[in-house]
């Protein structure tokens, strides 16, 4: 598999992901073991630790990553980007936190949203706020991170390539927003 170099709690270069059929309900207990170990979440779901390798030359900017949709569809590409972002936040911050996930509905948005939700579960996020069908405009994601029903979220993942054209043979993107609703600063990306 390809991906970023993403150490997971001392297990080497790996990311964790929950099974595709599992719906997030509560935080995970601590992962144990090394790469390729299957751990058990507090809710009984298994979590797979997957070995990964760095993507040469990959470095998101302040507004995330935009590339051809086919690149995002490569095995483990989205998982590696999301895990790298989660790693910058840290396991303690993620444990029981709230994540906002939404996008502009372009090609591959629904699949990427499901991947982000599985990664959130595997990393101990307690709750996800997701738009109907995964649709939330970029400014709305920022607003939701800052406040929703008197609460706030730790961060958000925006599934868009912004003004770039979308489609199977066009562009897709991931943006990472932090607690103030703004783009993650470059040291965190």
From TrEMBL:
The protein's superkingdom reads Eukaryota
Does the UniProt entry include the keyword Magnesium? yes
**Keywords attached to this entry:** Isomerase, Magnesium, Metal-binding
Q: Which GO terms describe its biological process?
A: carbohydrate metabolic process
GO CC, one annotated term: cytosol
Name all Alpha-D-phosphohexomutase alpha/beta/alpha domain ranges: 58-187
> What Gene3D superfamilies does the record point to?
Alpha-D-Glucose-1,6-Bisphosphate, subunit A, domain 3
GO MF term (any one) = phosphoglucomutase activity
PANTHER family the UniProt entry points to: PHOSPHOGLUCOMUTASE (PTHR22573:SF2), PHOSPHOHEXOMUTASE FAMILY MEMBER (PTHR22573)
Family stated for the protein in its record: Belongs to the phosphohexose mutase family.
Question: What is this protein identified as?
Answer: Alpha-D-phosphohexomutase alpha/beta/alpha domain-containing protein
- Source species of the chain: Diacronema lutheri
Organism lineage string: Eukaryota, Haptista, Haptophyta, Pavlovophyceae, Pavlovales
